[in-house]
Amino acid sequence: MKLSGRSIIGFREGSGTPDLFYATNPANGEPLQPGFAPATAAEVDLAAQLAAEAFAVYGRISGKEKAKFLRAIAANLESIASELVARAEQETALPKARLQAETARTCGQLRLFAQLVEDGSWVMACVDRADPDRKPVPRPDIRSMLRPLGPVVIFGASNFPLAFSVAGGDTASALAAGNPVIVKAHPAHPGTSELVGQAIQQAVRECNLPEGTFTLLFDNGTKIGEALVKHPQVRAVGFTGSLAGGRALMNLAAARPEPIPIFAEMGSTNPVFILPGALQERGDAIAAGLHTSFTLGAGQFCTKPGMVFLPPAAEADSFAARLQHLVGDTPQFNLLTAGIGSAYRAAIDRRKQDSNVQVLAETNSPFAERTFCAGATLFETDAHTFLKSHGLDAEIFGPTTLLIRHAKHEDTLKVARNLEGHLTATIHGTEQDLRDYADLVAILETKVGRLIFNGFPTGLEVCHAVVHGGPYPATSDGRSTSVGSQAIFRFARSVCFQGFPDNSLPEELRNDNPLGIWRLVDGEMTREPATQLARRQS
Amino acid sequence: MKLSGRSIIGFREGSGTPDLFYATNPANGEPLQPGFAPATAAEVDLAAQLAAEAFAVYGRISGKEKAKFLRAIAANLESIASELVARAEQETALPKARLQAETARTCGQLRLFAQLVEDGSWVMACVDRADPDRKPVPRPDIRSMLRPLGPVVIFGASNFPLAFSVAGGDTASALAAGNPVIVKAHPAHPGTSELVGQAIQQAVRECNLPEGTFTLLFDNGTKIGEALVKHPQVRAVGFTGSLAGGRALMNLAAARPEPIPIFAEMGSTNPVFILPGALQERGDAIAAGLHTSFTLGAGQFCTKPGMVFLPPAAEADSFAARLQHLVGDTPQFNLLTAGIGSAYRAAIDRRKQDSNVQVLAETNSPFAERTFCAGATLFETDAHTFLKSHGLDAEIFGPTTLLIRHAKHEDTLKVARNLEGHLTATIHGTEQDLRDYADLVAILETKVGRLIFNGFPTGLEVCHAVVHGGPYPATSDGRSTSVGSQAIFRFARSVCFQGFPDNSLPEELRNDNPLGIWRLVDGEMTREPATQLARRQS
Fold it and tell me: What is the pTM for the complete model shown?
């Protein structure tokens, strides 16, 4: 496949503006061909118009047809996997194995949603049958199910060029729910984005879907993204990125004449609490696991553990020493973009100058002084200082973490109560620790979307139960997840039908339940046809 | 029970400010004793602090305990029903029978939510079991369920002094999910509010719940409501009222340092489409039903049908004539408040001066020229004018509706496509009409929360399947409902537990499923213990 450097607007090629931008290879700082043309305001309009037209068709096709489409995307991605990984390697300097695994994860996500919508039970169908004999007034027949919202705008993230980008979880869940999708490509990996966009466009054609089902727009500024979020035809937004960027889009979405839901996942510092029993039993293993976790992907994960609370025990010293050693031996990393590189360096410098914090260790080996390069850094402070200081709980995107020493039980609870929203919180403990710190778990449950026991927050499992969300500022809406099958609920709304003849209802709501889905019929969960049930007394 | 005229802050009586306000009897315009003291900023703080403390306990009690509490509220309301109805009659001038029915509905709603949380399956428990043998990496054990958000602020509505007020659906659903509730009483029925507040406070005591579980604050301005929405301890907001009021609160919630979800139900014009076959078959019956529906409760329902599209048929004339006759014979109404009265009169006067619109009929009988009094008014225009004009689709709160004549099939679709969000849309048709207008149904589905066939939008059924929501401006979040059991989902968020020992998990997530709830285990819906299932191949 050839890269055109142009937006993909339905079946059309965008022309864009002449100020081309280029991806940069973080391994050497060199620009990559071809140049990419930022989309125009007219192309935003065209994409939104096509998406609105497509919605009238795509929003009403069956779960089976949507599953076929999602699987076609996965198959098309797999057929270009080596090309895709090669381009992504150039654009991100991430290891090939990681990018291969991420391609597999991306295809796996698409197939998870395919399975979900083919099965069909996700629509939460609800049937409350009529009771003409009810006194004082007859009970009407009321049936509801989840329906799509309309055109959805998705912003690709820089740190997962595949799994959280053009065909990532946001796109997969929005398409699965029945919404046309307009992706704003992340400018750090436009080539990877275009290849994925071509694969989706081809799947749209293969499945004879309306062309506006999918659009990919390029821009290396904020103009096109803003225009998309403000566009009257757009019905919802998915975003993964920085707090500043996410909040700006939240404000735009809220200020529209007609506000729309926005689901922004904006990162997190992911507190880790190491409890006394676990520290005593296996401090070294935890130190090794923690080191792997906070340096994984050069620390550029929204689940990176960025603050670690240690109890006042002798083992805490050897834990810190072990980690010091590991961090010193950590080789240099290539960060994803020059912007991430300078932000990381600036944040590390600021923290080094903070008198409340000590540098425990840094990558020992000399490393290139290029913007994209960075070593690992381990900081330390104590719980008392942490509670008094501002900004020590802020996310630093990159391979660094902060140890907080001497957290007594009471301090630990106090720290936990003062936490903002995070995506995850991790506890390392024995079963006895867990009993002793039940109050800690209770507090953390109100602060995060995912609680991890004796594991690490990186390496997120894509499944039904997973929650990749959390109260603000981790996300814009702590009631949502952007990973796993529950992500589909962001892009759907319940619609109810009162008094409609059976044959005019969507299949999901008909008496005979032709799709065999799980439904709540007169308050009871069942897959049986509604007509075979005895009528409930009401 | 004695009215104190003071806020109920947990178990304490507020002192408030000395500028007492009084309810007014709409039947005679006379003020009612006692005076009510607006809450203070310090009382907002106290309420929020108590609610946050209560959340640590109330947020974790079992479904059974919450059910007991909700039923205790219902029982306490029933034990003061005659007193409650008498006071509500004075404060609203609504008919006694209506207020008795509304008391029953309010208690019914509380018991619906009691049943829902006692049953327990509403938490959408999800169990994805570990697979230590999975390659390339073991699959962790991940389990999720819905958990409450924290203190929720509810604004009572004027037009349902019981069912959408202090112990209405918003409060019932927020409490059912496990959230402490702070109600801002509507100033039009403070006495009714205080009586209901006392009943809830008593239930909190009877069930030995923390005092901050419930607070009721008075204010006849916007200060206390604003302070509540901005308070850092508050986690979500429920509101029923005007578009202007709702949007102001939406803006406040979005502008907080930490934005919170707000569920504002802001009314609607509820389009009605009368299709040719139905008009021919039973025009008179539809006219009679429509008249009852738009004058019910003096037209002060958010489901009032405020615009009615008629096809170009001879029967349309006799339909309009029939309705003219009915409207002429309609007696005068007492509106709920002076504010509603003047807003209604002003809107009617503006519409009368609109050259695009004709007055077809008005209440013939002379009626009192008091602010609270109003007659019914029937307006008419044509589809062409309607499409060109601005504001003819705006809600007028009160006993009026607008006929739109000569809507041909194409006009009907055009009108439907141009609709903003509404709570409901109604279609009167034969089965043949429904086939001929399948495209109309498809469009309306994207515009409203509830579609009604051959019925009327007023007289909302409280059940599992009902959706009382709709895209903006009907509500702030078209993905939500404020009526029916699905209303609970507004006030809950999914939290997931990774790798926790079985005995440390909430009961809903344990292997043996001690509550016997429906769960998604490894992707399959079941009530069986997780351990008895064969492991799925992954």
Answer: 0.97
Residues of chain A with pLDDT under 50: 537-538
What are the start and end residues of each CATH 3.40.605.10 domain in chain A?
Answer: 34-124+145-266
CB–CB contact A495 B467 (8 Å): yes
Counting Cα atoms < 13 Å in the Cβ hemisphere of A2 gives 1
Mark yes or no for CB contact A420/B258 under 8 Å: yes
The answer to whether ipTM exceeds 0.95 is yes
Residue B372 has pLDDT above 90, yes or no: no
Domain A34-124+145-266 of CATH type 3.40.605.10: yes
Give the β-pairing of B519-521 and B524-526.
antiparallel
Q: Is the pLDDT of residue B369 over 80?
A: no
| Whole-number pLDDT of residue B205 | 98
Inter-chain touch A452–B498, beta carbons under 8 Å: yes
Give the chain A residue whose CA is nearest to the CA of B437: A504
Q: Is the pLDDT of residue B18 over 90?
A: yes
Mutation site for B-interface testing, chosen from A463, A488, A489, A525 by largest number of B Cβ within 10 Å: A463
| CATH code for the part of the protein at B42-266+482-489 | 3.40.605.10
Where in chain A do CATH 3.40.309.10 domains reside? 271-453
Q: What is the mean pLDDT of chain B?
A: 95
**Sign, Cα dihedral of B425, B303, A479, B172:** negative
Q: What is the mean pLDDT of residues B21-39?
A: 96
Return all residues near A314 (Cβ < 8 A) that are at least 6 apart: none
A302 part of the active site: yes
* The predicted structure's pLDDT at residue A512: 96
pLDDT of residue A538: 42
Q: Tell me which chain B residues have a C-beta less than 8 angstroms from the C-beta of A126.
A: 464-465, 486
CATH top-level class of B271-453: alpha beta
The rounded distance, in Å, linking the Cα atoms of A100 and A18 is: 34
Q: How many other CB atoms sit within 10 Å of the CB of residue B372?
A: 24
Q: Angle at CA A35, nearest 5°, toward A33 and A41?
A: 155
How many CB atoms lie under 10 A from the CB of residue B510? 19
pLDDT of amino acid B368: 67
Chain centroid to CA B437: 30
Instruction: Tell me the pairing of strands B271-274 and B307-309.
Output: parallel
pLDDT score for B538: 42
How far is B5 from chain A, CA to nearest CA, in Å?
35
- Whether chain A has a CB inside 8 Å of the CB on B475: the answer is no
